[in-house]
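Re: beginner question about structure tokens

> Can someone show what the tokenized structure looks like for a real chain? I only ever see the sequence side.

Sure, here's an example I had lying around. Input first:
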Amino acid sequence: MRKSLLSLAVLSALSVPTITMAEDAAPAAAPASPHTIAYNVGLYSQYIFRGLTQTREDPALQGGVDYTHASGFYVGAWGSNISWLSDGDYYRSSSLELDLYGGYANTIGDTGIGYNVGLLQYIYPGSKNPGVKKAETTEIYGSLSYGWLSGKVSAVVSDGAFGYDDADGTTYSELNLNVPFGAGFTALAHYGYQDFTGKTNGTSNSRYDYADWKIGLTKAFANGVNVGGYYTDTDAKKSVFTDVSGQHLGKDQFTVFVQKTF
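And the corresponding structure tokens:
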């Protein structure tokens, strides 16, 4: 899912001699707006979420909008096509994921340490099969970052997590490394762990626990276009993360993308 950056504008004052007449002085610069709205749209060879394919290795069209205030508060929305709910026979029809989120991001004094806390709602419109738990999930999250390294923990506060019942308290913990090395290139590495709580139909949800990892490379252009690719893999059990066709959702994958921000 998409992270908003805090933009701050710094204004300089012009020194004017006291003998300068008011009508001859340069007009004052208009104050910078504290509001920022950014958009993004991207085409991906597939949609990978926490190491699992959401589109059965088919392409995904994704896009979002973010509003940020200079104080650090932000809200946003993001969407993508999906197929995992119908591929797994959980929903009769479901082809969209919509994420709504909001929070606060800032830095701790002059330490260079950034923090970000917020709330995220996953929405999956569609018609579910009888006896299946709705996939809608609510998470709270908090992250710390310093330089190229960041860590984040997301915790489920709804009673279900992505279709698993009685799963409030489920967590996803992750470490991310983004290393820029000139000319707009950034190398990335990621490790995450999904830890489910509760029971579904009397069986512990812990059997769905798994780790995932990712390495990749991106290139950013001055016109807002970003391209890249990444390799992902997991240790998710094939016996529990397989769709009705027999495809393992957590197998090693390679994804490429082109994205535009404006």
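Each token stands for a local structural state, so reading them left to right follows the chain. The radius of gyration is 22 Å.
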